[in-house]
Design brief:
Elements: H1 6-9, H2 11-19, H3 33-36, H4 40-48, E1 74-76, H5 84-88, H6 101-117, H7 121-124, H8 132-167, H9 180-184, H10 191-205, H11 227-242, H12 252-268, H13 277-280, E2 293-302, H14 304-309, E3 322-324, H15 326-329, H16 360-364, E4 365-366, E5 371-372, E6 375-376, E7 398-399, E8 415-423, H17 424-439, H18 451-459, H19 475-489, H20 496-502, H21 506-509, E9 514-521, E10 529-537, H22 552-555
Antiparallel strand pairs: 1-3, 2-8, 4-7, 5-6, 9-10
Helix pairs in contact: 4-8, 6-8, 8-10, 8-11, 10-11, 11-12, 11-17, 12-17, 17-18, 17-19, 18-19
């Protein structure tokens, strides 16, 4: 017998406010496992509890830092944050700032326990069906648990994927195992075996998941997995499996499978790009039912993200923890020409560097002299938000994406924050990348669109309206454009850190100096500035860092082999 106190302790407050008011009623802890799966209330809460690990994603989750600060997207202003170990190359198997091994395996065990113990739910939930009301209640409870079983299988697959993309092949856990001898001797499964398990799970649960939860049973619908969440997971998984890190022979069939998986979502016609890129990341509880959001973690009312990221010059406080890098800012193209700023004829003016750029720049990054909360932000030296101020930006930029500028922190106002795990624009870019690698830039190969068309659709979303890519690009040229489009469209969403690893280009991107912008006011002209790009810091990346190290405690047990170089 095993007491599972921890199974329910984490339900409040995280899951309660993240998945809906239906979880607000706590139940007692300290039950034995065999005492949990005896009625609908306890059983359903055990299932909903598997969602808890999703709250480890996003925002300031690594020593108050976003994962963006561990790659070339940003600098984290707090030099004592654990995130800095990535940038200095001082992380290890015993000190990994982003070690998720225990978190996800704990969640997987909870998933397996629920799946095993709820298998006989029809008998467990049996009611006197001679009374119509009881029969209706019984049918409702059985249906709900069966849906929840499919959701939990999705979560189990998702947690396995999150382990796989960090560590490579890992032990696939399909059942609860408490026998210490078995656990100690459990070896890692190969990457392909793990990928096959996840893909097969996505296929098998697809008919068991709901199309949508919107409007279901009062508040009992927010943040729950649907069919498209499983489809999006499979599409992302297959893209990773086709990428250079995991496909060194560049097997074209892997790219074709990734394209097909993404195309399934596109061809359904149910999803589209949101008409407000800036607003997409401040939807709160409104993310459910949005045509672009495929699956999101709906968090609780809070304002800590704003306290960490508001510019420092506001009376209500703020500090620059996540400071977008000049490296990222330079990646945004010119809107009129669609060219990179360093290309001849781009129209870029280095002394007016933010004029005429891709609109997503100022929707994601607060740049000097741009409007925020009713005034222009002064990122210049000597400005009230300037780089020389205490706790101010270290790069000349502040984060705007995900930040709710409508909060009055002096009044401790807060709002619901949602972290988007899957969205339609990513699916389109996944598709474009796979199609380009399998068939080239402009070959539809029997699908609804080619790689170029998919990228163009993202670039031309309402409110962004970037020019379409020029025709006739080579496969190599299209690859670079797709990679840059991902960098822009998905900035700060925890894609770049893993993208440069799966592409095996982190040796270049992460060893380049992180750059910043030094801004000063021109003499005699209060609204004209001098802009000078400067080096913020050097960073360190070594080849063995393409994969996370397996935690030292797991390796010391004897059966788990460490990743090379660690």
């Amino acid at each position: 017998m095993k007491i599972i106190n921890c199974l329910f302790v984490l339900l409040s407050p995280f899951v309660c406010t993240g998945c809906g008011d239906f979880l607000e009623t706590d139940i007692e802890t300290g039950y034995l496992e065999e005492e949990i799966f005896v009625n609908y209330q306890r059983m359903s809460k055990a299932g909903y509890g598997v969602y808890t690990a999703l709250f480890t994603f996003g925002f300031n989750r690594v020593g108050t830092a976003m994962l963006a600060s561990a790659c070339d997207e940003a600098d984290h202003a707090d030099i004592n944050s654990a995130i800095q170990h990535f940038n200095t190359g001082t992380w290890s198997a015993s000190s990994n700032p982003e070690d998720c091994w225990s978190t996800f395996y704990t969640a997987i065990r909870r998933a397996n326990l629920f799946l095993e113990e709820s298998r006989n739910c029809k008998n467990i939930l049996f009611r006197d069906t001679t009374i119509a009301a009881n029969k209706e209640n019984y049918n409702y409870q059985v249906r709900d648990i069966e849906w929840l079983r499919a959701e939990v299988r999705f979560l189990r697959a998702f947690y396995h994927f999150e382990l796989l993309k960090r560590y490579g092949g890992v032990p696939v856990m399909r059942e609860v195992t408490d026998d210490e001898a078995i656990l100690v001797n459990r070896k890692r499964d190969g990457f392909d075996d793990c990928a096959d398990f996840i893909a097969d799970e996505c296929d098998e649960i697809l008919p068991l998941l709901k199309d949508t939860w919107v409007g279901f049973d009062g508040d009992k619908w927010r943040g729950r997995a649907t069919k498209v969440a499983a489809q999006a997971l499979k599409a992302r998984l297959l893209l990773y499996a086709a990428s250079p890190l995991n496909n060194p022979s560049n097997d074209a069939e892997r790219w074709k499978k990734a394209a097909q998986a993404a195309h399934t979502i596109i061809a359904s016609g149910y999803y589209s790009l949101h008409n407000n890129y800036r607003g997409l990341f401040n939807l709160g509880n409104g993310s459910d039912g949005n045509p672009e959001v495929l699956f999101a973690v709906q968090r609780w009312n809070e304002n800590s993200f704003e306290k960490y990221n508001y510019p420092v010059g506001y009376d209500q406080g703020g500090q620059a923890t996540t400071c977008p890098s000049q490296n990222l800012v330079d990646a945004y193209e010119m809107q009129s020409t669609g060219k990179r700023i360093y290309e001849p004829g781009s129209g870029y003016d280095p002394q007016n560097p933010y004029s005429g750029r891709d609109p997503r720049l100022e929707m994601s990054v607060i740049v000097n002299n741009s409007s925020f909360k009713g005034r222009n932000v002064e990122c210049r030296v000597g400005g009230i938000d300037g780089i020389d101020k205490l706790k101010a930006t270290t790069t000349g930029y502040y984060l705007k994406k995900y930040v709710n500028e409508n909060l009055d922190l002096a009044q401790n106002q807060s709002s619901v924050h949602s972290w988007i795990l899957f969205r339609y624009a990513e699916v389109m870019l996944n598709y474009a990348e796979a199609m380009n690698e399998a068939f080239g830039p402009e070959d539809k190969a029997g699908f609804a669109m080619n790689a170029k068309t998919a990228v163009d659709a993202v670039r031309q979303r309402t409110g962004v309206n970037m020019p379409i890519l020029p025709p006739g690009l080579s496969q190599d040229e299209m690859r670079e454009r797709i990679r840059n489009e991902r960098r822009i469209e998905l900035a700060f969403e925890e894609h770049r850190f893993f993208d440069v690893r799966r592409w095996k280009i982190a040796g270049q991107t992460e060893n380049m100096p992180l750059m910043a912008m030094q801004i000063s006011r021109k003499e005699g002209d209060g609204n004209q500035f001098d802009y000078i790009v400067i080096k913020k810091e050097n960073r360190t990346f070594k080849n063995h860092m393409y994969l996370h190290p397996i935690p030292e405690a797991e390796v010391l047990k004897g059966a788990i082999e460490q990743n090379p170089g660690w």
